[in-house]
Amino acid sequence: MIVPNRRYHIHVICADNDQLLVLDSIAVFFQARAFLTYDVSSKLPKASLYGRQCIDSCDYALMVIGDSYGTKQNTGVSQMHLSYLNAKAKLKPLLILVKKHHNDANISRQLQEFSSMVTSKADKIFYYETENDIEQLLIQAYYKMVASNQVGAGWVRVDDEVLKASKLSVSDTANLSSSKTTKQENPTLPAQLMDDNVSKKIVLTDTFEINYKAQAYEGGNLTDLTRPMVLSWQEVLITLIKMPATFSSYGLQSGINRLISTRAEIDIKREMPNVHAVARCQISQDDLNHLQQQLVAANWIQLATYGTRVTQELWKLTFYAKSLLATKKSVTEIPSTLTSNG
After folding, report:
1. What is the number of other CB atoms lying within 10 angstroms of the CB of residue 124?
2. Residues 87/119, Cβ–Cβ less than 8 Å
3. pTM attached to this predicted model
4. What are the CA-CA distances from residue 43 to residues 39, 66, 71, 120 (Å)?
5. Between the chain's N and C termini, which has fewer beta carbons within 10 Å?
């Protein structure tokens, strides 16, 4: 999973002097997410050595196949081709972006052959047309790659709270170190420390749409359904607060599924009045991944433990998230479900 304050080393495999705007878009996307190195021109004497060393040390590799095969080396292949072979040999998790070409595009034979070889051996290929597609494409592609290929701890920057605490007055520092509580429990805790890790704030009253699967029973027949549902962030936060102190990604999924189940039968019976039971309500995996990413970005959840496998990860609600409901008398006074917009 993508974790706040944690960055990985990603080596970008690419042809020299090709798709510069795409490479710039990749740099912008990963500015707060990862450290990047790039293949260099095959004209440089140490290009191969540099590429091999970068791949040896990187956590993930990202390859961009655009309009050019790249400059050939003495071996007859380009640095992009060589780096690809090195990444495969080192068993590096590899994310591949391939440009869609029109039928009349002037593409070299070597690029066509290389692209065909790569796409025939890869499980998932992500296609783009222009640099404008890169951000939305990477939001899902990178998250899925990290979630399914845990490679280690990566680089973790020094806790911002520690750095800021050193600049506080003696009394403020004492307040900060004596209690890691919510703003309500410790009003002297500087507000900015609660928000340091928020990269995208969430408004509790805002809503968003997810898709879920369910099974509907009608007259002895079972029907598999896929339907949309509108949830509010307030509902999600209440669901998180009611969960155990630490929970796995599966636990998060189960909590959201329970939230969906409270409304799914009503929504389905509205269109299928003869349905007598609804079961196995499950949020789509893509929507769950995106939801978890948003919760991390908003600093609502943070990693409690970290292991080499996804199943070893446990999450917990942050003090910042708990403080969002601090003005309420109690969580139970907030409706646990809201009227569906659909």
Report:
1. 11
2. no
3. 0.48
4. 12, 19, 7, 29
5. C
